[in-house]
Write a sequence for this structure.
């Protein structure tokens, strides 16, 4: 049961991410495809790189918010949706919950991107040697960590729920990356 509940909890972010991929594929809001770091560098190295854009932030937060609102609609109408919803996750309005999750997702990726840029690891790459496996794992779970931190302002999941969310993330994130490669939005999965 915990896996289904964890999937339900993650659904706004997963669906928001899927919509984000579709939007990128169709070049939605191309004028916002500008780096968040504005091209700024530290020690001659970019802060986050070209892949972390205002478009990504705005679309991911917007889509996750819309998906959380759709989820709330389901919760208010169907017993099965109510049964999957954890007490406390409805402490704030659905739009605020979705915005919180989407913002946490995007901001969670930034520290990892910053560290990789400072180590001269190209965007979308894991690195060589010891850095390869470390950054591959970090690339999979950085957004989960950001989402967990963001949601902790309102609700904190149990350890078993965090473990279930980690397993889901380690499954869904590589599938999403593969989809982006297939659609020509990324060069590689890892």
């Amino acid at each position: 049961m915990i896996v289904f509940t964890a999937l339900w909890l993650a659904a706004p972010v997963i669906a928001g991410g899927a919509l984000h991929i579709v939007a990128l594929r169709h070049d939605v809001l191309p004028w916002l495809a500008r780096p968040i770091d504005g091209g700024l560098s530290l020690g001659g190295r970019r802060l986050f790189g070209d892949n972390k854009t205002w478009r990504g932030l705005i679309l991911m937060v917007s889509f996750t918010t819309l998906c959380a609102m759709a989820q709330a609609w389901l919760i208010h109408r169907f017993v099965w949706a109510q049964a999957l919803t954890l007490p406390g996750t409805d402490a704030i309005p659905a739009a605020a919950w979705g915005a919180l999750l989407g913002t946490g997702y995007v901001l969670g990726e930034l520290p990892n991107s910053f560290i990789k840029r400072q180590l001269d690891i190209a965007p979308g790459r894991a690195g060589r040697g010891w850095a390869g496996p470390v950054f591959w794992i970090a690339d999979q779970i950085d957004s989960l960590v950001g989402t967990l931190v963001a949601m902790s302002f309102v609700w904190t999941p149990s350890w078993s729920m965090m473990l279930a969310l980690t397993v889901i993330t380690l499954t869904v994130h590589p599938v999403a990356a593969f989809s982006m490669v297939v659609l020509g939005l990324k060069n590689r999965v890892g």
Q: What stands out?
A: The chain is about 65% helix and 0% strand. The chain has one domain: 2-182. The chain has a mean pLDDT of 91.
